[in-house]
Design a protein that fits this description.
- The complex is a heterodimer of chains A (103) and B (130).
- Chain A has 103 residues and is mostly helical.
- In chain A, 49% of the residues lie in helices and 9% in strands.
- Chain B is 48% helix and 15% strand.
- Chain B has five helices and three strands, in the order αβαββααα.
- In chain B, strand 2 and strand 3 form a beta hairpin.
- The longest helix of chain B is centred in the N-terminal third of the chain and has 18 residues.
- Chain B is globular, with a radius of gyration of 14 Å.
- The two termini of chain B are 25 Å apart.
- The chains are: A mainly alpha (103), B alpha+beta (130).
- Strand 1 of chain A pairs antiparallel with strand 1 of chain B.
Chain lengths: 103, 130
C-alpha cells in the first residue's frame, strides 16, 4: 500500500526531471503566481464560505445563551400601556397563585 | 412594549400568536415579561402582575429572567380558579426544558401552550366575561 503511494507521488517528480520527445511542460510559475494559485484561491474560497455562513447570524444582535450574562432589553407582551409608571405605583398581587422554576 | 433586539421578528410573532391563542382558549389574560427580575424575583413578579391593574385578577403573568435563569408564573385570584398551582408548575417545567437549551422563544411558546391547555374551561354564562 505504502509502496504504491510512494510510486504515485513520485511519478510527477520523476517526469519533471526526464523529458520525453514531444512533451511541452511550458514555462514555470513565478513565485507570485504559485502563491496566488495555491494560497490565494483557497483563502478566497474559505472567505466566501465564511461570509455565507455568518452573514445571517452576525446581524441578529444579542442572543440568549444559558450561563452567559443577559444583555437584552426588558420586553413585556400584554403589559400595561405605560409600563414604567404602572410598575412604580403597583401593589404586589395578593391571593393569587403560581409557580416558579429555575433552570 | 416595542419588540427588542433579543427576539427575531419571527420569534416575537410566535410568542404573540401563542399569547393570543392562550387567551382565546381560556378567556384569561396572558402577559409575558422577559427581563431582569432583581434579587427577589417572586416579589418583582408579583409587582409586575399587580401593575396589570384591573385585569390583574384574571391575568396570568409569565416572567422570565434569562440572566438569573429563573422563571415565575403568577396567577390572579380569578385566574387561579382555572389554573391551579400544579398546572402552573407544569407550565414552568415545560418552559425550563427548552430554556435550558437556550431556546427562549420556544420555551415561552411551549409554556403558554401548556398553561392554556390546563386553564381551558367551558364558558359560563354571567361568570365569564366575554
Amino acid at each position: 500500500m505504502s509502496a504504491l503511494l510512494v510510486t504515485v507521488l513520485a511519478s510527477p517528480a520523476f517526469a519533471a526531471q526526464h523529458r520525453y520527445e514531444g512533451d511541452d511542460p511550458g514555462p514555470g510559475l513565478t513565485a507570485v503566481e504559485t502563491l496566488g494559485l495555491f494560497v490565494g484561491i483557497p483563502a478566497l474560497v474559505i472567505a466566501v464560505v465564511y461570509v455565507l455562513v455568518f452573514v445571517g447570524t452576525g446581524s441578529r444582535g444579542p442572543r440568549y445563551r444559558p450561563g452567559v450574562a443577559w444583555r437584552g432589553a426588558a420586553q413585556w407582551w400584554g403589559g400595561p400601556v405605560d409600563a414604567e409608571r404602572a410598575v412604580q405605583s403597583a401593589q404586589p398581587t395578593h391571593g393569587g397563585g403560581g409557580a416558579r422554576a429555575h433552570w | 412594549m416595542p419588540t427588542g433586539d433579543v427576539f427575531t421578528e419571527r420569534q416575537a410573532q410566535d410568542v404573540e400568536r401563542a399569547i393570543a391563542g392562550a387567551e382565546t382558549d381560556t378567556g384569561l389574560h396572558f402577559s409575558v415579561y422577559v427581563g431582569p427580575l432583581g434579587t427577589s424575583t417572586r416579589e418583582k413578579a408579583l409587582t409586575l402582575h399587580g401593575a396589570l391593574g384591573d385585569q390583574a385578577a384574571r391575568s396570568v403573568l409569565v416572567a422570565v429572567d434569562p440572566g438569573l435563569r429563573q422563571t415565575e408564573i403568577i396567577t390572579g385570584a380569578d385566574a387561579k380558579r382555572f389554573l391551579d398551582d400544579h398546572a402552573a408548575a407544569l407550565g414552568a417545567l415545560a418552559m425550563t426544558t427548552q430554556l435550558s437549551a437556550g431556546d427562549l422563544a420556544g420555551g415561552l411558546v411551549n409554556g403558554l401552550r401548556t398553561l392554556a391547555e390546563h386553564a381551558r374551561h367551558p364558558q359560563t354564562l354571567h361568570l365569564d366575561q366575554p
